[in-house]
Amino acid sequence: MKILVTGGAGFIGSNLVDALILEGHHVRVIDSLFTGKLSNLDDARKQGLGRFEFYNLDITEDEVVDIIKDFQPEIIYHLAAQADVRVSVNDPLYDAKVNVLGSLNILKGAAEAKAKRIIYAASGGTIYGDVDASMLPVNESNPKLPVSPYGISKGVVLDYLRSFYLTYGIEYVALALANVYGPRQDPHGEAGVIAIFADQVLNSKQSVIYGDGEQTRDFVFVDDVIDAFVKAQDKGGNLLINIGTSVETSVNRLYKVMCEAANKKVNLVYKGARAGELLASSLDNTRALIQLSWRPWTSIDEGIAKTLEFMSKSK
Ligand SMILES: NC(=O)c1ccc[n+]([C@@H]2O[C@H](COP(=O)([O-])OP(=O)(O)OC[C@H]3O[C@@H](n4cnc5c(N)ncnc54)[C@H](O)[C@@H]3O)[C@@H](O)[C@H]2O)c1
Question: Rounded to 5 degrees, what angle do the CA atoms 60, 64, 70 make?
Fold first, then answer.
């Protein structure tokens, strides 16, 4: 099958491209290399000889529409995004340009190419906003009250997906991802804390926890997330689906697991909590189980061990 992946040189995108190439698909990647790296696609280049193409291109460029139309993909995975909450706060215009206008360009291309389905990387960590602890793990029918410009720009695309489905019949699946971590992750993404701690723990540097460390996140391993993306090719049509573990892990526990896995001593200071940081977050994954037959299988201990192994090898 012909499959387009935007953001395919990034952390999640490149892991997805590897899986698609392995399954025998013909994959075209569009990525501006803003945060992505060509080296993330080394395996895809080797394994996908004749079935892998890379376009170094910004999704906001007009040319993108023709490139999609020319390729006629059956499935489009849309992962290219400005994915840093802090950047969105400092420059909401730039964030909206990439995440809203860029996404519209991809949708326009999808309509012209008569693509069957678009699978979108939505943000489960920001779309629901600051959810009361009694509502956790949060499910998809919770009100969408994003706080950051990033949460808003990623969330708005859900309405466009629905609109393009109603107008052009392009099916969609919006996967609301929790805090994804694993090999190739860099420190700037939504689960950046794991990449930051990994570097500090492996190199015996001091780590800083802001607040008391009891703030929680839903950390989901990248291999499990890729499995959900693959399952969404023919399941879960026209739905928003949470992809998380339903489990809250505190930053203190995360740090402890990392020190144990790396066999290093705790080397930590606490500083004042950062303004605007969510206190707790986790996503109810019941819909994913029902609609995609998906559930995560990697424990935090196993995922952290794999991440540290990758990071220590790629130093
Ligand atoms: N990592 C997470 O925990 C997480 C959680 C929820 C949602 N997401 C979403 O998943 C997707 C992938 O995130 P990631 O963590 O792999 O981040 P990433 O930064 O590694 O990947 C984003 C990719 O998009 C590319 N890109 C950025 N701006 C572009 C532009 N204007 N034109 C073309 N390409 C552009 C980057 O070069 C990069 O390769 C994003 O849409 C993000 O919003 C990630």
Answer: 170
State the DSSP string of 164-229: HHHHH--EEEEEEE-EEESTT--TTSTTHHHHHHHHHHHTT--EEEESSS--EE-EEEHHHHHHHH
Residue from 77, 128, 150, 172 carrying the catalytic annotation = 150
**Per-residue pLDDT in tens (0 to 9) along the chain, 315 residues:** 999 999 999 999 999 999 999 999 999 999 999 999 999 999 999 999 999 999 999 999 999 999 999 999 999 999 999 999 889 999 999 999 999 999 999 999 999 999 999 999 999 999 999 899 899 999 999 999 999 999 999 999 999 999 999 999 999 999 999 999 999 998 665 558 898 999 899 999 999 999 999 999 999 999 999 999 999 999 999 999 999 999 999 999 999 999 999 999 888 999 998 876 788 999 999 999 999 999 999 999 999 999 999 988 876
Q: Domain 2-181+218-245+282-297: give its CATH superfamily.
A: NAD(P)-binding Rossmann-like Domain (3.40.50.720)
Helix (H), strand (E) counts: the chain: 13, 13
CATH 3.90.25.10 fits 192-216+248-280+305-313, yes or no: yes
Residue nearest to atom 43 of ligand 1 (CA): 83
Distance in Å, CA 10 to ligand 1 centroid: 6
pTM value is: 0.97
Distance 5 CA to ligand 1 centre (A): 11
Nearest CA to ligand 1 atom 10: 121
Domain residue ranges in the chain: 2-181+218-245+282-297, 192-216+248-280+305-313
